[in-house]
Amino acid sequence: MMVSRLDINVKDGTTMKAAVLEAFGAPLSVRAVPDPQLGTGEVLVDVAAGGVLPYAAEVFNGQRRYLLRPPVIPGPGAVGRVRALGPDATRLAPGDWVLCDPTIRSRDDALAPDVTLQGWTARGQGGLRLQTYLGHGSFAEQVLVPTENAIPLGPIDPTEAGRWTVLNVCLVPYGGLLAANLGAGETALISGSTGTFGSAGVAVALAMGAACVIAPGRNQEVLADLRHRFGSRVRTVQLCGDEDTDRESMKRVAPGPIDVVLDLLPPSAGPTPVRAAAMTVREYGRVVLMGGVGLLGGDDLALPYPWLMRNSVTIRGQWMYPRHANTRLIELARSGLLDLQQFDITEFALDDANKAVTHAANDARRFSFTVIRP
């Protein structure tokens, strides 16, 4: 029987400070909890910075219906320094800077592992079982992760730890673009490019060598900012809401055929803009779905069978990213191809975790990120 680690009531032993979600709809409670206990195949990390996603408040109040069992320490992903290691770590050492990958996979099925996003949500009942053992996230002074989830960052400026947490946002669209096999010189369309993950996806696609990125959206201010940041390699489209008109507008601004479409639209968008974007792709093109259509109810996405078949279009769903994506994205950042300096970072102390959640929800700027610094 799996041993639970979600009992965070202090009985004896050493303690750390953490922000705890006691129940959906309740504010985070910053209090003492037991220190994580290191086991074989695990790494204990002193958290330097943990990112706060813009929709964190929707997760904590239950609106997103995420599979997360309170009481729990939330927070998906972190940057920190290794405190202690299990015996299976052969290259990491105490004091090393690491990126803590929140995507935790079960180890007993290499083909279809159960997955939990540490401190955030799970995929199905298997993921919930995994969450029972490794469910606590990064809104704490320490976090315990599987050895393979502590990704070496190399030396960094400690004052810049918050900036490096942006990689956990960029990893999501990077996973989608890897699934699409985006190649240098191709044209990619990022559906949802005015959102947090979508705008990061524009930056990542360009870092991967896309010749052109089509960026549709309704927010004129964000579209103008994308043009200003990235220049002529980004072509923006103001959407009007009519599916046929929007589809033709997206195709018209492209310099040629659109090779890849990546959808990152949230559940609130519905299927219409997703379909409009997907059906801009060229013959033999690739479409990757990573957004939220249908997750909160409503209509599902319908695509024409004849269009798919006669145009030999590949449609693929992708949740998160493969393990090797972490290392490759870190190298893109270290090389300067992915410029993390373009992100504005706002930091909060752990005691101000609730203020951080509110700030993240209200900060409408793209390329800005809210961070908790324990």
Architecture overview:
The protein is an alpha/beta fold. The chain folds into two domains: 15-166 and 343-373, Quinone Oxidoreductase, Chain A, domain 1 (Alpha-Beta Complex); 170-317, Rossmann fold, CATH 3.40.50.720. Helices cover 28% and strands 26% of the residues. It is globular and about 65 Å long. 46% of the residues are buried. The model has no long low-confidence stretch (mean pLDDT 95).
How many strands, which pairing sense, and closed or not: the largest β-sheet?
7 strands, mixed
What integer value in Å does the Rg equal?
21 Å
Indicate the low-confidence ranges by residue numbers. none
Q: Helical percent range?
A: 25-40%
Structural class designation: alpha/beta
Distance between the termini: 33 Å
Average per-residue pLDDT, rounded, comes to 95
Number of helices: 11
The assigned CATH architecture of the largest domain is Alpha-Beta Complex
* Shape, principal axes of CA atoms: globular
CATH topology of the largest domain: Quinone Oxidoreductase, Chain A, domain 1
* CATH homologous superfamily (4th level) name of the largest domain: Medium-chain alcohol dehydrogenases, catalytic domain
Q: Which percent band covers the strand fraction?
A: 25-35%
List the helices and strands and how they pair.
Layout: E1 15-20, E2 29-34, E3 42-52, H1 56-60, E4 78-85, E5 97-100, E6 103-105, E7 115-117, E8 121-122, H2 124-134, E9 142-146, E10 150-152, H3 161-164, H4 167-179, E11 187-191, H5 196-207, E12 212-217, H6 220-230, E13 234-238, H7 243-253, E14 258-263, H8 271-278, E15 281-289, H9 305-310, E16 314-317, H10 324-335, E17 344-349, H11 353-362, E18 368-373
Parallel strand pairs: 11-12, 11-14, 12-13, 14-15, 15-16, 17-18
Antiparallel strand pairs: 1-2, 3-4, 3-9, 3-18, 4-5, 5-10, 6-7, 7-8
Helix pairs in contact: 4-5, 4-10, 7-8
